[in-house]
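Need residues for this backbone.
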């Protein structure tokens, strides 16, 4: 079984399209996990891809909404520090980040549960063999990782790499493109050539890993921005959850509605485990 973990960003949408029209092997399923408040362009990409798939015999696409990260944070459910928000480090004036837990709990685990469902297995049954295809492109191959489930193999066609829990990462497949894989800019060129839209990077609309230009883009959508501002205010005082200093969604350590976003500046943060922004 070959399953795509679909982040609904440029690389994931391109992989879906390539698989559907025969540039890449045809996958059995594509899974997108909606964490409750994705960026507006992510929902736009999802709508477009569903419409395209219906008309063009795309591979089966499943949208998962079982866990809502936004609502859980607003209701103080689960681990409060599940997003990598910013805070002052021990009152030193230096900016630090809280531990990142959201990707594993709200993305990877949900994809794995859906794979088990597709395989017709019960909650406590052992997984059957599966390949999980992930759209990391060549310039971000450092994000390639191994699956946590023994019977799984992660496949990264744009990096010409695959990995297993037991044997780690192999970067020498050379099956799908050339010896060097394919970059995001090359993927965008292919999308343009084929007449497909570039859907941009995907993520939660409140993801602290977003660049300034992405924050500025989210701010243009009043409905989404209102929810982001509400969440940013809600998480400020988290001392009851073991965090000593106020927390924020940006490294400026000010309320999000007071932050200045220089669209020319890109934040150089590491992305989430190879499942977000693709």
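Answer:
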């Amino acid at each position: 079984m070959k399953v795509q973990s679909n982040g609904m960003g440029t690389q994931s949408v391109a992989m879906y399209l390539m698989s559907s029209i025969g540039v890449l092997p045809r996958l059995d399923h594509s899974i997108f996990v909606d964490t409750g408040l994705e960026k507006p362009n992510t929902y736009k990409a999802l709508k477009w891809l569903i419409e395209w798939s219906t008309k063009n015999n795309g591979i089966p696409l499943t949208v998962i909404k079982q866990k809502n990260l936004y609502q859980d944070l607003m209701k103080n459910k689960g681990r409060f520090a599940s997003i990598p928000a910013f805070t002052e480090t021990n009152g030193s004036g230096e900016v630090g980040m809280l531990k990142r837990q959201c990707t594993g709990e709200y993305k990877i685990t949900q994809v794995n549960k859906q794979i088990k469902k597709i395989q017709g297995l019960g909650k406590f049954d052992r997984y059957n063999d599966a390949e999980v295809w992930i759209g990391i492109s060549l310039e971000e191959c450092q994000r390639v990782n191994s699956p946590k489930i023994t019977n799984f193999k992660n496949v990264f066609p744009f990096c010409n790499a695959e990995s297993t829990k037991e044997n780690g990462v192999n970067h020498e497949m050379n099956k799908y493109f050339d010896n060097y894989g394919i970059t995001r800019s090359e993927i965008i060129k292919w999308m343009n050539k084929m007449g497909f839209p570039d859907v941009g990077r995907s993520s939660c609309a409140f993801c602290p890993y977003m660049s300034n230009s992405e924050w500025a883009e989210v701010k243009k959508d009043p409905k989404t921005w209102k929810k982001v501002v509400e969440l940013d205010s809600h998480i400020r005082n988290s001392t009851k959850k073991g965090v000593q200093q106020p927390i924020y969604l940006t490294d400026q350590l000010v309320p999000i509605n007071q932050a200045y976003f220089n669209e020319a500046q890109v934040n150089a943060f590491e992305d989430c485990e190879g499942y977000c922004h693709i």
